[in-house]
Each structure stands twice: as C-alpha cells, then as structure tokens.
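Session log. Operator J.P. requested a structure for one protein chain; no other inputs attached. Running the standard single-chain path with token output.
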Amino acid sequence: MTRNQLRWIPMTAIGLGAILAACGSSSTPTSPTAAGSTSAATAAPTPTVAAPVTTAAAPSCPSAGTVGSALGVTLPNPTGITSPGTTTLPAGATDINCLYHATAYNVIISVLTNIPASYISKFSDQFPVAFKPVSGVGDEARSFDVALGGGKDNEGLVAAKGSTVVAIVATATPATLSQIEAFVNSLL
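Structure written below.
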C-alpha cells in the first residue's frame, strides 16, 4: 500500500465526521481516549474539517468479530467517534458511531434510531462521488464506490428502514458492496 493510499484512511474518518456534523449528534460521549494525532496525518495537507474525536465505543457497537466476519476482514475492537458538529438530532433520536481502525484499512458504522428516513440524504449528500440507488436494502438505500488503486476501494452504503438509518463506510478493505449491503440489512 502506498503512502498516498494510506492517506485515504484518515481522510475517510474526517469525511464521515463531516457527514455526522451534517446529521448532528445527541449521544453523550464517554470519556475521551488519550489525546494524540496520527503520525500519518502529519504528512498530509491540513484538512478543512476537524477530525472526529474518538471516545470509548458504545456498548451497542457491533463487535469486531461480527463486523469482521460480515466483511471478510480482521478488525480491532471499535472506538467511538463523535462529530465535530454543533447541531443536534431531532428530539428522541439517538445515534452510535463506531470506528474499527486497522493498520491498512478502516470501517465506520453509524446507526441512528428514532430518526426520519429523510436523514439518509444527509449522508449521501456527503459521499465523495454521486450515489447509486440500491434495491433490496431497507426501504431505501444508496451506495458509493471509489477506487483507491492497488485493488483497494473506498465503499459506503447508507440505508433507511422505518425510523432507523444505518451507514457503513469501508476503506481499503477487501469487502464487496454486496457484503456491506447484507451487513447493513442485518443492522436495520
């Protein structure tokens, strides 16, 4: 994996932070982990969006084994991420945001409950490329796929079913969109 490809990993986390900022957050984060920036991000240009703050993972984050099995990868235990945004979710809505950051790839999962299905647009509007509608996942779903080179992709899917919205972004994993779709369906 080249240095340029490795830059996509923290940038995806930053991008999801922007997505979550658009959606807001009402979760009360647990105590943050020790402060420290990633050394890989030091060499990258200064991002225009603040990186999401990592926290202890919510107990409701899927286990690393569950996510890894669904996507065909070995993942470390999740950490939580909070958005740098100041907006909040609608009254009664809740969210969990889980980051599974491995050395060469990462997976980010967001689950929002008691939320209007229209919030799917707040995610897909932030995709790095135009989204594609996906059938067979929830009531409505949208995906993106961007080649990173070297056979690696940055893939994402957001779906709504009733008052639940689930989004997964997988960067540089061997997972296919079909695997992501199946996993999102299991979380809805």
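Operator note: The helical segments are 3-23, 39-43, 64-71, 120-124, 177-187.
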